[in-house]
């Protein structure tokens, strides 16, 4: 089976073999480019999402409490000598919200 032999591919066996090889290479390159493009877009999306998350956290995080720069003098002892102390709230609890009543609808 040489270049000029009528093999199982017919009279144009060498031509169809070249066309088939070129088609296979073209298909392989297109698949590679598609996968590379998808990976590039995924990486780009992840970078943009990470930046957006950093901006969101910086915008919506509670403000930092500044640390005291100089120690303050201790308070003078109270005039009364009571042993009871005010109950303390656990950290992280907020006072209840005050609600304002809705305005009545306008009368016509």
Give a structural overview:
With 108 residues, the chain is mostly helical. It has a domain at 28-60. Helix content is 44%, strand content 0%. It has one helix at residues 13-60. It is elongated, with a radius of gyration of 39 Å.
Distance between the termini: 102 Å
Tell me the series of helices and strands, N- to C-terminal: H
Unreliable spans are none
Quote the average pLDDT.
Answer: 79
Number of helical segments with 4 or more residues: 1
Radius of gyration: 39 Å
* Strand tally: 0
Strand-helix topology:
Blueprint lengths: L12 H48 L48
Structure summary:
Helices cover 44% and strands 0% of the residues. It is mostly helical and 108 residues long. The N and C termini lie far apart (102 Å).
Please supply descriptive tags for the structure shown above.
0% strand; 1 helix; 44% helix; mainly alpha; 108 residues
